[in-house]
Amino acid sequence: MLEISGLSVEVEGKQVLDNVNLEVPKGEVHVLFGPNGSGKSSLIMSVLGFPAYQVVSGKVWFKGKDITHLPTNERVKLGISAGFQNPPAIRGVKLKDILRSLVSDSDQKDVKIRELAENINFPLEFLGRDMNFGFSGGEMKKSEILQVLAQDADFVMLDEPDSGVDVENLQLIGKVINKMLKGRSGLLITHLGYILHHIDADKAHVLLGGTIACSGSPSKILSQILNEGYGWCEKCPVAKKQLCEQEISQHP
Amino acid sequence: MPSGKEAALRARDKPASIGPDLNLNEYSRDSQEWSSCPLPNLPAAIIKRSSDVGTVPDEEERSATYFQIDHSVVFRAVQEMFEGKLEVLSTIEALRKYEWLKDYLWGLLQVDADKYTALTELKWDQGYFIRVLEGQKITLPLQSCLFISTENLNQNVHNVIIAEQDSEVQIITGCTVHSNVSRGLHVGVSEFYIKRNAKLTFTMVHDWAQNFDVRPRTAALIGDNATFISNYVCLKPVKSLQMYPVVYCKGVNSRVRFNSILYGSSDSYLDVGAKVVLQNDGTRGEMITRAVAKDNARIYTRGFLLGEHRNSRAHLECRGLLLSDNALIHAVPELVAKTEGTDLSHEAAVGKISQDQVQYLMARGFSEAEAEALIVRGFMDVTILGLPENLRGRMEKLVDTTAERAL
């Protein structure tokens, strides 16, 4: 489904991704762990092709097509959707209007939107509000999930859908995401891993300093991180080697 | 009023304190006489243009109508069910009918304020007199249209609007030109009297031409517990437009709200402001402006809040969006407090379209142009006008077309 090979990316001249190799096969859900600033969100932005994320080298393939230089909306049309961690507020642009444009069912758009919103316990009055304007953290997460649900894409990326969400809603959101991901492929970013209690993920990767330090079973990696923190990853020989190489290449 | 005439003569060359100075001799005063006729019988091109600014030919949708083309009143009527509740006449006609009206004419504005007020006094081409009688709540909007059909014509109207005690009305005014008209000068002197407990919502839509000059001169007096809402929408190019209405919140708890949506394109020069004077206890003022500047447009948005009384409050908010490197938006907020206990504030933000917003919408599948159009449309949010459903729909359509055209 998604294949990233040797991807290095810069933002305003600063490297944010370094030789990332990652493959999410069809029907699999992968999790991306990593400390703050390790490049998790940058990876999502790069897959989406945001112009600020300049590809220095490497390629991004989606459904067998090289999308490395496609504009964002073209990538989305191919079947990629994303829920953001900190989406911008847009005054005067109503969430409902955006959702209407995303929902495919042409006759019953409002019914469908209502149904999706009720599913995740999203306050209906927020549909008529300006995008993300005055939304609480939890409402913002739900609004992102709502939009991703409406997009109904084959490949779903979610950037920390569990941050800032209370326990009760976490369970609800987790279940909805798990249901949504059934039969689809996805890439999930989680900082603390809470959401994994509710989601069946196939594989996890740890991103350190803009590069994939290790990959493996989501539950094993999560429990290591929870027990020992990301310090464990930094001590990991694989990561160490790569970090060393990185240092060597930076200081020849 | 010989004294008024004398003052006008003395001021006929007096430039306005702001805005480009115009040579009044460059415009023509010759227009054909239009005889009165029912709205649906007007030429299709005129109906089309006037309905674009909110004047509908179907009288059923409006409580009353005033329609002026060039220097002639072609139609004025009150719908049957509103007879005895409100009056719509030409100001000249009304002056003949009501002796007392002379106290209202130039009651709030000075005839010698500048060459444009002077011109209106010296070369007066009708204008409307609207009066909502005491206690009458008018359930349908009242419409008026000031139309120019002659190339390079100068039209000077003097309007008087009176909302008597406890009355309520929505007025929609459209000012526009025939599609064959490219230049000319419109001067509109308007004086509003909103009396005790009355509520007047006045929505003005301008749609001029690329080389057209416009100089409205407006003032309003608001009585005890009365509310004046003044909406202004200008989305089409104009050569130069300068206006700076003054509102006196004279009555206890009197309120005013100015909402403007401005879209400047090509070489338009828009200088739009308002001054609110808080003169009593509990007075409130609010001014909200959304300005979008494209191409080489220059937009000046001014706001002047003057607190002269305790327990008064006013706020002004201006947001500007630049769509071109050659365009300019200049926000000029001024707050003057003359006493303690007056609470005046402002916020202004001018900038370009946020790339974060564009990318976010592109991640929802919109093309770059679509995303920008959505943002521009959202920026010119008509809900700030607080209009009833039927008028809001019209404004939304106007804004939609502008946003689509924008990019």
How does this model look, in words?
The complex is a heterodimer of chains A (252) and B (407). With 252 residues, chain A is α/β, with parallel strands linked by helices. Chain A has one domain: Rossmann fold, CATH 3.40.50.300. Chain A contains 9 helices and 12 strands. Chain A has a 6-stranded mixed β-sheet, sandwiched between helices. A 4-stranded antiparallel β-sheet of chain A has the order 2-1-4-5. In chain A, strand 1 and strand 2 form a beta hairpin. Chain A is globular, with a radius of gyration of 18 Å. The C terminus of chain A is likely disordered. With 407 residues, chain B is α/β, with parallel strands linked by helices. Chain B folds into 2 domains: 352 residues, no CATH class; 54 residues, no CATH class. Chain B is built from 7 helices and 20 strands. In chain B, the strands form 2 sheets. A 10-stranded mixed β-sheet of chain B has the order 2-1-5-7-9-11-14-16-18-20, covered by helices on one side. In chain B, strands 3, 4, 6, 8, 10, 12, 13, 15, 17 and 19 form a 10-stranded mixed β-sheet that branches. In chain B, a hairpin with a 2-residue loop joins strand 1 and strand 2. Chain B is globular. The model of chain B has no long low-confidence stretch (mean pLDDT 94). The interface between A and B is medium-sized, with 26 and 22 residues.
Considering the chains and any ligands shown, give keywords for the structure:
heterodimer; A: 252 residues; alpha/beta; Rossmann fold; four-stranded antiparallel β-sheet; 9 helices; B: alpha/beta; ten-stranded mixed β-sheet; 7 helices; 20 strands; 42% strand
Describe the protein's topology.
The complex is a heterodimer of chains A (252) and B (407).
Chain A (H helix, E strand, L loop, with lengths): L1 E10 L2 E11 L4 E5 L6 H9 L4 E10 L2 E2 L5 H7 L1 E4 L6 E5 H8 L6 H11 L10 E2 L5 H15 L3 E5 L7 H15 L3 E5 L13 E6 L2 E6 L1 H11 L2 H5 L1 H14 L2
Parallel strand pairs in A: 3-10, 3-11, 6-9, 9-10
Antiparallel strand pairs in A: 1-2, 1-4, 4-5, 7-8, 11-12
Helix pairs in contact in A: 3-5, 5-6
Chain B lengths: L1 H10 L32 H9 L11 E6 L2 E7 L7 E5 H7 L17 H8 L5 E5 L9 E7 L4 E11 L4 E10 L5 E12 L4 E9 L3 E12 L4 E8 L5 E4 L2 E4 L5 E10 L4 E10 L5 E10 L4 E10 L4 E11 L5 E10 L4 E11 L2 H8 L5 H12 L9 H18 L1
Parallel strand pairs in B: 1-5, 4-6, 5-7, 6-8, 7-9, 8-10, 9-11, 10-12, 10-13, 11-14, 12-15, 13-15, 14-16, 15-17, 16-18, 17-19, 18-20
Antiparallel strand pairs in B: 1-2, 3-4
Helix pairs in contact in B: 1-4, 5-6, 6-7
